[in-house]
Amino acid sequence: MTEYHTPVLLNESIEGLNIDPEGIYVDLTFGSGGHSGEILKKLKGGKLISFDQDEEAKQNAIDDKRFVFVQGNFRFFKNFLLYLGFEKVNGVFADLGVSSHHFDKTERGFSFRSEGLLDMRMNKSAKLTAAHLVNNLAADKLSNIFYEYGEIRNAHQVAGLIAKARNTKSIETTFDLCKALAPLTPKGIEHKFLAKVFQALRIEVNAEMEALREMLEQTPEMIISGGRLVILTYHSLEDRLVKNFMRSGNFEGKTESDVFGNVNGLPFKTFNNKVIIPSETEINLNSRARSAKLRIAIKND
Between 3.30.2350.20, 3.40.50.150, 1.10.150.170, 1.10.238.10, what CATH number should domain 127-205 receive? Predict the structure, then answer.
C-alpha cells in the first residue's frame, strides 16, 4: 500500500456521515483509503464507491465485496454512479486536501521544498503541466492565476519575473521556479509565499475549482432526503464555495425569500453552523491538518 495521507478529522468525518449500515456511500477522494476504510467498518449490507483520478491510488484499493474503486475525476461522479447502477446514495464525502504522497514524491513536482520536474498533475495521463503554464502563458494570464488562486497581491510582479526568467532559460523544475522568484520572495516568510505560488499553479493545472463546482452541483440530485454531504477543505477559495453551496444551493451564497421571509427550495441545510476544525492535539500529530475545515450538510426533502 502506498502511504498517501494521514486522514484528517477522521472520527468527525465518519460521524458526520451518520452511516446507515445498509446504505450506499461515496468517497470522492480515496487516496490511501483512510476514510474509506472507516466507512467500510460501519457498513454491513451497504456499499462504498470510492473515486480517485490518480492511477497510483488504485494500489490501495480495498479487497471487499462491498467496495468499488473508480479511477476518475470526481467532477464526473454522477455519470459513473449511474453507469454502475446507483441512482441515489446515502452520503457523499470528500477530502479536498492534496495527499502527503503528492507532496512527498519529488517527481510529481507539487512541493517547493524538494527539486523535481514542475509537473503538478493529479492525473498523470493529463497533458497540461505546471511547466507548460509558466513557460507558455502570457504574463497577464499568469498574473490572473496567481491573484485568483494564490491570492497574491503583487501577482503582476510575480508573473513579470517568470516571463523575464523564461526568456533566458526554460523553467523546468520546482527549484528553477523558486530561483526565478527569488528577487520577490519575502525574507522570513519564504515558505508562505512559495506555497501560494505553487497552490495557484496546481489549481490551474488540475482545474480544481471548476471540478469542485461541477461536483457540488451534482450532489442534490444524487443524495437521498436526509442523506449527508461531508467535505473537508483546506484553503479559503474552496471553503467559500462549499460553505455557500451548502447554505444557499449556489456559489454566491444568495437566497430568495417569500413575502413572509421564508427561504424555500434549498437543497441542503447545514448540520454544523460552526465549522469543525482539528484539535491542537491532532495538529501536533499531523501538521498538514492545520488549515482543515469540516462542513456537513443534510439533504432537504
Answer: 1.10.150.170
